[in-house]
Each structure stands twice: as C-alpha cells, then as structure tokens.
Structure to design on (472 residues):
C-alpha cells in the first residue's frame, strides 16, 4: 500500500528498527498521528530473526538483554513476552595461542580475564599480572570519563588522539595483556572496531556508558528478540509502517517537514524523527542542510565490522560435558561463542561472531572456504561434534545496505574532542542537536547503553517526547 500524499501526519518516523518503532508507539499512545517509513521490505533493522532449515528460530542481529537493561525488560513485561537467563552453568574455554584451556567463570567481570577465573587458566604469573595491570589502568580511565561530555575528561585531547593499540603498547608488549582490550574493541557489545581504528577515549567512554561489567548478556528473549520488533509493528494501527520506502530527502518549512522517498513520494508532517544508524543519515539530503560539524561527525562515525554465525545442533552436547558454551580466544575467525538456547536446551544454538576487520577479509573469501574456517574454529572450542551442526547460518551486517555494519558505530580518533563536541546537542554525548523540526533517534544517540537494544529504546523515547512538543 502506498501512503496518501494528501494525508499529512503529526510525526514522520524514518526507520522501523526498535528505536523508530518505540518512538512511534509512544507518539501513537499520546494520540498523535504517526507514519513510519522503512527502506527495507521488512521491519526490525538490527532486531531480526529467521527460522533455520531444521526449524530453529534464531536471532541474526541482537539477542541479549542485560542485568541493568531496565527499559528493555519493562517493554517485554508490557508485551507479556517471557525471557530466560543465559546459560552460564559450567566451564568455558579460552583458546589462546593454539592451546585450549578449560576454566570456570569469575563472579565479577572486573576480577576476571575475559570472564574466566584468571588463576584457573594455567598461564604464566608475569603475563597474568600484566593483564590485570592493564585492565586496572583502563578501569581508572573509565572512572575519569565524563559520560555526557567526553571532551571534558581530564587530558581529553591527548587521549582522543591516541589509539587503543598505542595506549596499550605504552603499558605492555605482552600479547596476553592486550587480549582483553582487543576483545572489547572487536567483540564487546559496543564493538566491531579494531584497536587501531579508534581512540582510547572512545573505548573508555563505551565502558563508562555501557559497561561490560554490568552483564549486558544476562538474559535472552523467549522465542526471539526479532519477535519483539514484529510485535511492536503489529500493535501499531494498520498502515502506520510503510515498507520499501527509503527516505532520501527531508525539507523543512516554517510549520512542518516534507519527507521524500526514493520513488518521489512526499509525506508531510509537523516534525520528523530520523532513527537510522548514523552513517545512514548521510544518505539523506537535508534542506536546510545539516550543520558542517554534524556532517563531519557522521563522516567519522563508521559502523563496525560484524558477521554473526548461528550453529544449530541436535543437542546441547557441550552442556552434557559440563561446559557453558562460552568460548573466547584468538582463533582466526571466531573470537566468541555463546550458548543461546533456552534452559530446556532446545533449540541447541551456539551464537558466534566474526568481528572487526576480519568480518571484511573473511567475508571476501568464497563461502565454502569461510564455512570450513568457521567449522574448524567451532571444533577447536567444542570438539569434533561442533563441526557437524544441523544448520550453520551466517549474517554479514557489512553487506546490508541500510545498516552497513554492526554492532554499532564508533568514532575515528580525534572526533570526540572536535566534531562530536561541536555537533553535540544540549544532552551532550553522542546526540547531535536537533535540526529544527528533525529529531535524532537510533541506539547510537542514547546517553546510556548506546549500541544496545536498551539504548535504542531510550533514544526512541526521548526523540518521541521532543518531536511531540514540536507537533502539538
Ligand atoms: C549481530 C548483532 C548482534 C547484536 N547483539 C546485541 C545484543 O545481544 N544485545 C543488544 O542489546 N544489542 C545487540 N545488538 C545491537 C542492537 O541490535 C541494536 O542496538 C538495535 O537493534 C538498533 O536499533 P535501531 O532502531 O537504533 O537501529 P536499526 O535496527 O539499525 O534500525 C534502523 C532502521 O532504519 C532503516 N533505514 C535506514 N536508512 C533508511 C532510510 N534512508 N529510509 C528509511 N529507513 C531507513 C533500516 O532499514 C532499519 O530498519 C546487536 C546487533 C547486531 C547486528
């Protein structure tokens, strides 16, 4: 169905990911007339699931909720969608420099070596001490970061010009000591970038606003996270979400906005919310144009590199052997595997990731060659049974035109203390100032948990409140 150009709305929302859907839900609940324009032929963006050949429902995008993801938990309660605790019972595996080490998990992330009890890993004392020292140095830096105004952090400019790799090298040359930082950059929930692609200020900021220590992978959604986006869209009045409508231009007049799609249709509204990943804003022409600092910020905010792998098995055989499915290491393809199945063990699913630059380089290999590497890495963590899944699903986010990478965007070195500072709105952080009647949503602009579902919800709620004021 095409929307009618003759039927203006109060607020036009661009993007039917979680953030845009939440904004639309809030506005509609206030009695405002909303239309959501979505470029893809499906809703959900990075919140999407699929059914595999063997019948398992798996999340191709985000899946976990966190211990302090209160908005996401409250949303599921409101929708009467159940959740279950992630399976962390039993030992995990650290695969380091070709050796597989079985170890129990630590109580606290801050006391761990990447979740594991350090002393159970049978690693040289000197290397463990250097690893601990570097983790403590990062924690000290995180404690100093000004979350809303990272550019006001002590020594901000120097920290923003120093890459994570350079900062780590100033402390130690031991490869093990650098592993937790590299892992946080590539595979941590704010990640997808290489340690040489961003500044230590950016990494410290991610840990100040979205701390790995607060267990962001604590629980999973019964059914699938993708089902949440489907449900949110279903709850909106029929015709609210228009699929296959890529927005290419937003014009502003004294009393409203015209939102124009790639097929030349124009939808009038009193205000607009743009809820797309930051680099995708560059694909939209704004009249009047965005301030130069905002554009410069977007040009320095690439998406991370990320391919998600879902391996579905007949049984959770690792659980039967006393393992929890948490595999971490410096294998050539997979740096993380995690049990993503429910307590009853069916479907039996290991989720894993090819992250950072290797998402691009391995992504360029012939499919069968990449598949063999993935299976070999799964077997290295979990034994030969892991190389024989019922289904092996690969989702490359860098090849998705309207996302362009994952989990989220990051800032190039020097950007926080220059263009991000100049572009920032009253709330500071990663949120640029509203552009007249155009407001920004999408997880990346959230003050807390940017890059996560939780941040997508908060950003959607905040943009809805601001856009409603302009629309009334
Ligand atoms: C592999 C992977 C694993 C993840 N794991 C987790 C996790 O476990 N837990 C967690 O909390 N988070 C996780 N995340 C992050 C989480 O999925 C995102 O933070 C969240 O879904 C982002 O929602 P959003 O609405 O901000 O953006 P998106 O989901 O990207 O939605 C933006 C929408 O805008 C549309 N769009 C883009 N350009 C245009 C245009 N010009 N016109 C119209 N529409 C447009 C897109 O098609 C898309 O539908 C993960 C993400 C990925 C990819």
């Amino acid at each position: 169905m095409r929307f009618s150009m003759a039927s203006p709305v109060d607020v036009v929302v661009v993007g039917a990911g979680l953030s845009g859907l939440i904004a639309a839900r809030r506005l509609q609940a206030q009695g405002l007339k909303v239309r959501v324009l979505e470029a893809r032929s499906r809703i959900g963006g990075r919140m999407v699931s699929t059914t595999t050949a063997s019948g398992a429902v798996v999340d191709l995008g985000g899946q976990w909720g966190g211990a302090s993801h209160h908005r996401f938990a409250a949303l599921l309660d409101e929708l009467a969608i159940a959740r279950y605790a992630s399976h962390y019972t039993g030992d995990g595996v650290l695969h380091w420099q070709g050796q597989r080490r079985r170890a129990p998990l630590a109580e606290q992330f801050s006391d761990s070596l990447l979740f594991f009890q350090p002393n159970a890993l049978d690693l040289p004392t000197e290397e463990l001490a250097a690893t601990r020292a570097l983790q403590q140095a990062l924690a000290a830096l995180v404690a100093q970061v000004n979350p809303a105004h990272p550019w006001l952090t002590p020594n901000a400019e120097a920290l923003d010009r120093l890459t994570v790799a350079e900062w780590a090298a100033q402390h130690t040359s031991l490869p093990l000591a650098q592993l937790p930082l590299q892992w946080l950059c590539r595979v941590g929930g704010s990640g997808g970038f290489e340690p040489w692609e961003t500044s230590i200020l950016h990494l410290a900021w991610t840990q100040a606003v979205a701390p790995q220590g607060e267990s962001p992978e604590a629980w999973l959604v019964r059914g699938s996270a993708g089902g949440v986006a489907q449900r949110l869209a279903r709850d909106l009045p029929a015709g609210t979400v228009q699929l296959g409508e890529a927005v290419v231009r937003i014009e502003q007049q004294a009393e409203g906005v015209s939102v124009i799609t790639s097929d030349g249709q124009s939808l009038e509204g009193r205000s607009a919310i743009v809820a797309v990943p930051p680099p995708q804003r560059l694909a939209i022409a704004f009249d009047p144009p965005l301030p130069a600092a905002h554009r410069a910020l977007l040009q320095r905010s690439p998406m991370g590199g990320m391919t998600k792998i879902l391996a579905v098995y007949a049984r959770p055989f690792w659980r039967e052997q006393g393992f929890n499915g948490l595999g971490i290491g410096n294998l050539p393809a997979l740096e993380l595997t995690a049990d993503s199945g429910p307590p009853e063990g069916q479907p039996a699913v290991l989720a894993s990731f090819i992250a950072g630059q290797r998402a691009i380089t391995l992504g360029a290999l012939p499919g069968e060659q990449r598949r063999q590497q993935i299976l070999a890495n799964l077997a290295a963590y979990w034994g030969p049974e892991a190389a024989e899944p019922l289904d092996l699903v690969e989702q490359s986010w860098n090849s998705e035109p309207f996302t362009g990478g994952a989990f989220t965007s990051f800032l190039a070195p020097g950007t926080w203390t220059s263009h991000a500072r100049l572009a920032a709105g009253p709330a500071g952080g990663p949120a640029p100032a509203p552009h007249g009647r155009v407001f920004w949503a999408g997880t990346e602009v959230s003050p807390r948990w940017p890059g996560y579902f939780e941040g997508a919800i908060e950003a959607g709620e905040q943009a809805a409140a601001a856009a409603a004021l302009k629309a009334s």
About this structure: The mean pLDDT is 96. Residues 9-45+225-290+435-471 form a domain with the FAD/NAD(P)-binding domain fold (CATH 3.50.50.60).
